[in-house]
Every structure is written in structure tokens, then in C-alpha cells.
Amino acid sequence: MAHPIDDFFAVIPAGGIGSRLWPLSRAESPKFLHDLTGSGVSLLRSTWDRLLPLAGRDRIGVVTGRAHGVKVEESLPDILPENVFTEQDPRDSAAAIGLAAAVLLRRDPNVVVGSFAADHVIKRQRVFEFTVRQAVAAAREGYIATIGIQPSEPAVGFGYIKTGEELVIDDAPLAALVERFVEKPDLDTARAYFADRSYLWNAGMFIARADVLLDELAANEPELHAGLTEIAAAWDTPERDAVRDRVWPTLKKIAIDYAIAEPAAEKGKLAVVPGQFDWDDVGDFASLWSLVADGHRGDVTVLGRNENVLSDESSALVVSQTDRVVAMIGVENVIVVDTPDALLVTTPEHAQRVKGAVSSLHQRGRDSVL
Fold first, then answer.
1. 43: Cα separation from own chain's centroid
2. Which phi and psi (to 5°) does residue 214 adopt?
3. DSSP string over 120-159
4. Span 8-280: which CATH code?
5. Is the pLDDT of residue 1 over 70?
6. Residue from 62, 99, 104, 67 nearest 79 by CA
7. Non-local CB neighbours of 311 within 8 Å, separated by 6+ positions
8. Which pLDDT belongs to residue 179?
9. Any idea what DSSP says for residue 15?
10. Range(s) for CATH 3.90.550.10 in the chain?
11. pTM confidence score
């Protein structure tokens, strides 16, 4: 399984600031550029390494903002410059993935494109590769394929995919039709989904022939499709910047789930392959703590300068980026993020609310700390 897939091109959307991980993640240094797991490399680099056996060095691209293009190339020194697709500003995932697909289709009419977020943590590499190869097989048959994660708990922080009828596809023994998408549920509903086992977490991974993906986009969002097609026609020419700068601001902001995946599911064109690998989207500091503590929160887990943290009968996640001493005495289940210009103190139960603090700071004109 080590050989790359000949007709496959992996795309890594690397956008967003990861506001639930503020103040560690910032607009100029978003979470995908950080080493959040202690692996020694950024989440982006880990994603590249994960996709390398499937696509090969020359067939991995990144879609990112202009502000991050240089840092992306520094993190991925092996990436080909023509495979860095820079956005003028964020237009959500349909535009980002659609741009890459439209450019790649002009370069290779038979290409199968796969989209994999830059900031996810995945373990069990061989199982991941086996799952992606099944999704590519389904894509060759004309389906838009997604990878659903078998839930390990009744989580309320993820959307869900309801699996339907099994498909008979060579080299994709686990593929099934998607019956429907479900938005993030309440806890009782999540428990029912977890017990059902036909519901999978929506991990936001999509694999499809570029022509099929763009045909679906044209059917559902024709203006967005037309804009991306115009940009793609100029992409590998000297007119790229001028056309992108003119057209990009006019593109609709919409997620690929709504623009392509959900309508495709209604038409019976969306397949899902269950992923049995370990997956985490590191969506907030609570999930980060569980990840780095291997699921067992207790005592004190430190990311950063361990010598600056003192603890007496406490349990916490401490992210230390300064020379300041962080001393905790008799506190339980807290999260402390200490950076040079901002200090965050919260708990796992309230970690999702960090995004609200970021919005509040923006409204107050405190963008210098964002």
C-alpha cells in the first residue's frame, strides 16, 4: 500500500485562525502552523507526511491565504510552488476546494481530488491509507465520497452522517450511500446516534473526480462555479493575480457541505467510507488536553516551558509561551494559556466559549491581540 495513487491529488485547505484556540492560535499564526501534539512538527506538516504515501510529493497542494503563503512553504519545503493556491481572503471551503479542483482539472482532466484539513490529528496511518484508497475507488465510479469517523463517544461538537444502503464497488468494500447529514445534536440525540452505530462523525474529508465535484457545484451554485472557472482559466498564466483579485471578492461564502455534499446526498451521489482510525480536529483546548494527555486529564499537562510551571494539588492544562512563572495551588480541572500579550484561564466545560471572547475583543477594536 506504499505506492502513490496515480490519478489522485491531495488538497490541504489551510485557512481560518482556530479562534477556539486563542491566544495560542492567531490570525498571523493559526493553529495549523503550530506543533500542538509535541511531535516536533506543525499540524500542517503532519498532514503532508500523512498524505505523502497516497499522493506523492508532486501531487499535494495547499489552499491558504496570502498572509500564510510564505509560512506554508517554510513548513513544507518540498511542496511545488505551483501547488500552493493562495486565496485573496477567506471565502469558506466551497471556494477554497473548488478553486483547487478547477485548476487541477485544467491540468489533468481525469484527476481525483481529495480534501483533507490541515489541522486534524490522525493516528493509525495504515488504516487511514486503506480508507482513503476506498474513497478514491468510489470517486472513480462517479460518486462524491466522504470519510466518516466511527464515534468513540456521544459527542455534541461534531456534525453526523447517517449511512444508508451499502454500495458494491471493487476496492471499496466498506462504502455506502449517505442517507443524510445531521447538524450538531444535543446530548440525548448524540447518545442515540452513538448507540445506533449507523451515524458517523462528519470529519470534512471529501474525495471526488474534479469534473464530478465541479458539475455538482455548477448545478447548486452556478455563480460560484462560474467565478472559480474564470479564475482557474487564468491561474497558470500571467493574468492570474489580476483575474483572481477581480473575481475572488465576488464569490459566495459557503461551506462545501452545503454547496456540494448535502445536495449530492439527496440525489444519491454521495458515498461514505467509515474510518476506523483515531481522529481529532483539535477544536478547542478541552480536546487538545485530552489529546496530549492521551485521554486522561489529571495532574498537570504542560505544553511549552515546563520549568516555569509550579503545581500543588492541582490538575490543569498549561500552555506556557513566556518566562513568567505559572503557580497553581489547589485548583482542579483548569486551562491556562500564557502568551506574551494575552492570558486565558478557563475550564474544559467552557472551552468552546473562547470563540466568543475573540469576537468580543474584535468588537472592542483589540485586533492587535488576535
1. 10
2. -75, -30
3. -EEE-HHHHHHHHHHHHHHHHTT-EEEEEEPPSS--SSS-
4. 3.90.550.10
5. no
6. 62
7. 299, 300, 327, 328, 329
8. 93
9. -
10. 8-280
11. 0.92
